[in-house]
Amino acid sequence: MNVLAYAKLNLTLDILRRREDGYHDLQMVMESISLADTLTIANGEGEVSTNLRYLPTDRRNLAQMAAAAFREATGLGGAVNIAIEKAIPVCAGLAGGSADAAAVLRAMNQLTGAGLSLEALADIGQRVGSDVPYCVLGGTALAEGRGERLTLLPPLPHCHVVVCKPPFSISTPWLFSQVKVHKIVRRPDTAGVMEALEKGDLAGVARRMYNVFEDVLEPRHMATIAAIKAVLINCGALGASMSGSGPSVFGLFASEQDAKRAYRRLLEQYQSVFLCQTVDGLV
Questions:
Q1: Can 8 be counted among the known catalytic residues?
Q2: Annotated catalytic residue: which of 100, 131, 165, 258?
Q3: Cβ–Cβ under 8 Å, residues 70 and 100
Q4: I need a labelling partner for 224 at 20 to 30 A (CA). Which of 41, 58, 117, 157 fits?
């Protein structure tokens, strides 16, 4: 079976509090986009292969972990071979690994005839990673807690998206270590985003987007993120933000022509630039 694993964007990312268990309570509005990995899943010996040599193909691979979690939860299915053709950049804030895991859960549900609901699959996905439950459902959703508590929202009006990953990675644990919740000054207008979604107001969503991690980046990274956002806005993006723990930056465009212009401009400076669209929920 061939399945697509769609990347996600954080339209908003807010950190509400640090919990007693050391984790943080988050509030995020998430969106699926057409940038996707392709997975081929077949009965086999439990092997994982990818087109990127540096990715783990053992038990550390989230797709392999998802297959094991499904078997453990349902008692169904044998070992499967998973071939992953990566298109989503790695360590980019786009949930590529989590998307792969979610695609495996969906595929195994179908291959085994288990008939689990997406909500049940999302529950299994919690055992694999915090972003996996969202990636099982896809579309537009509010994610809370560590990301596992999901509320489906009215879909973001269809639009064109340009994503640019600059040539560096950012450590998620390091970013969290830099956040002082009581000192956060700028936050996304999450309530305003949800209200704009109810009205089908794309521009209203776009101008309220923000990611609190942008304020704790190293200065050199902060400058690069700001420069990419400036290109997107100058080319007609309705709004631009960093996704997840970065460093990918995206812009939302009502005009395909403007999106293509931004895509070409960014390709003059960066290798990992993607022209895509929003994807409705998978429910």
A1: yes
A2: 131
A3: no
A4: 157
